[in-house]
Write a structure and sequence with these properties.
Elements lengths: L2 E5 L4 E6 L4 H10 L3 E7 L6 H13 L2 E5 L2 E6 L9 H6 L5 H9 L2 E5 L12 H9 L3 E5 L2 E5 L9 E4 L5 H12 L6 E5 L5 H12 L3 E3 L5 E5 L4 E6 L5 H14 L1 E6 L7 H9 L3 E5 L2 E6 L7 E4 L11 H9 L4 E5 L10 H6 L4 E4 L2 E5 L25 E2 L2 E3 L3 H13 E2 L1 E5 L2 H4 L5 H7 L3 E5 L1
Parallel strand pairs: 2-14, 3-13, 9-10, 17-18, 21-23, 22-24
Antiparallel strand pairs: 1-24, 1-25, 3-5, 4-5, 6-8, 7-8, 10-12, 11-12, 14-16, 15-16, 18-20, 19-20
Helix pairs in contact: 1-2, 1-7, 4-6, 5-6, 6-7, 8-10, 8-12, 10-12
Length: 443
């Protein structure tokens, strides 16, 4: 069992460069299945989820080579439409293979995808849209088998999502990109997340004809073939937000580079409300936190540009050590609050009812201290601190929240099942050590 151990109480200082977004790279990697030629993806972080996706591509017939932070993917002929069951169960992103293979091969056999246990996350929306364009599928056991034979359309096919699902949006885009040239698909109610825009930009660079990404309606004009390209994905806005919240929780002065501030405007406004001084350039964010001020929050997770569900747990940590009352409503995933009992071990005052958490900030969080208390010289000048203990990560984002809690804690916090964290933050220990945190990985 992998662990992370933190001696908390240190402020964070320095500069940190962000890598490419995992949530962009997963669908971009599957989109490579539709390309005839070679794709070079730059600024690719070493994450277990991305490694698993590359294994899936290789199993399908792609030639994959890694050199530093660049991945070279050669796609000539794919020799199977069947996705490896074990690999698919490990990552939720395997669902994106469905649209890509239907577009390229006209058939796919896919086990129900895995990932973090943050909710049921059904793929009904995906299947509904695919059925509307003519995909025929059936489920037997834990396997989805689907076939697709595009037909020429005299007029555009209009599709509408009942909910702006990122995954369903990205899947239907891939399923309609390749096909009979001249066919047009108008997709209403789509997700507007930056990662959706990034996927469309990548596909367009490969020769696709996709318009409207970032708005409520995306139009796809099918093309008969895509060519290779070189592409750098957008920086990871969720990792950016996690590090910003960490500084707000510990105090300090950190500049994050290779980031896009406008992708985190909702969070930046909330950090300013608790006293953070934020300055931005086109590709950097500097946060200075000297003292948190009392604040009352009412946070509702929502599709972009609303508050991201992937930052909900991290932000909750900040509210537990901020004087005032906070209400956090989780509108997207029903199991996002699995981290709450772990924060309560650290002394947080949180009650959860259904999809809503009520948090009362306290002057000091407390728990049974370990023998490795941080020196007083590491104490942050904020008025709220917490004391460490042993906690357990149950999913990626909740695990990162526990890291932030450990950084702010006075004492030693040990996080069990750190492997969840490495799915999206492979270098989190190295990054935080670079900023002055006392943190180590224990394997």
């Amino acid at each position: 069992m992998s662990q992370i151990q933190i001696v908390g109480g240190n402020q964070l200082h320095g500069h940190l460069r962000l890598s490419g977004a995992k949530n962009s790279l997963l669908p971009i990697m599957t989109a490579c299945l539709m390309v005839h030629g070679t794709v070079y993806l730059h600024d690719v972080p070493k994450l277990s989820d991305l490694t698993q996706m590359l294994h899936i591509l290789a199993d399908l017939g792609c030639t994959v080579n890694l050199c530093g932070d660049t991945v070279k993917i050669d796609v000539d002929e794919l020799y199977t439409h069947v996705i490896n069951r074990e690999a698919a169960h490990k990552i939720r992103g395997s669902v994106f293979v469905m649209g890509a293979l239907l577009s390229r091969l006209g058939q796919v056999e896919l086990p129900f995808p895995g990932g973090c246990a943050i909710g049921s996350r059904p793929i009904d929306l995906h299947l509904t849209l695919l059925r509307q364009i003519g995909v025929k599928y059936h489920c037997h056991g834990n396997i989805i088998s689907a076939t697709y034979q595009p037909r020429r359309h005299r007029k555009p096919t209009i599709l509408t999502l009942d909910f702006p699902s990122v995954g369903a949006t990205e899947n239907i885009i891939q399923a309609t990109t390749l096909g009979i040239a001249g066919n047009t698909y108008i997709i209403n109610g789509v997700a507007k997340e930056p990662e959706v825009v990034d996927l469309c930009n990548f596909l367009n660079q490969c020769g696709a004809q996709i318009h409207g990404a970032g708005t409520d309606t995306i139009t796809v004009h099918s093309v008969s073939q895509l060519h290779g390209t070189k592409y750098t994905p957008i920086p990871d806005r969720i990792n950016t937000g996690s590090y910003l919240i960490a500084v707000a929780a510990t105090g300090g002065d950190v500049t994050l580079t290779n980031t896009i501030p406008e992708h985190n405007l909702n969070l930046l406004n909330k950090l300013k409300a608790v006293g953070a001084k934020i300055t931005t350039t086109q590709d950097s964010i500097r946060i200075v936190m000297n003292r948190r001020r009392s604040q009352h929050f009412n946070v509702h997770t929502a599709p972009y540009p609303g508050f991201p569900t992937d930052l909900q747990s991290q932000f909750c940590v900040l509210t537990t050590i901020t004087k005032g009352h906070a209400t956090i409503t989780e509108n997207l995933f029903e199991n996002r609050f699995r981290y709450v009992p772990e924060l309560i071990k650290l002394g947080a005052k949180i009650t959860v009812t259904h999809n809503q958490a009520q948090i009362n900030g306290v002057s000091a969080l407390s728990a049974t201290p370990t023998s490795q208390l941080c020196p007083s010289s590491y104490a942050i000048p904020a008025v709220h601190q917490c004391v460490g203990t042993t906690v357990t990560a149950h999913d990626l984002r909740g695990g990162v929240a526990l890291v932030i809690a450990g950084l702010a804690a006075k004492g030693t916090t040990t996080i069990d099942h750190a492997n969840y964290i490495y799915r999206g933050h492979q270098d989190i220990v190295k990054d935080l050590r670079q900023l002055g945190a006392h943190i180590v990985a224990l394997d």
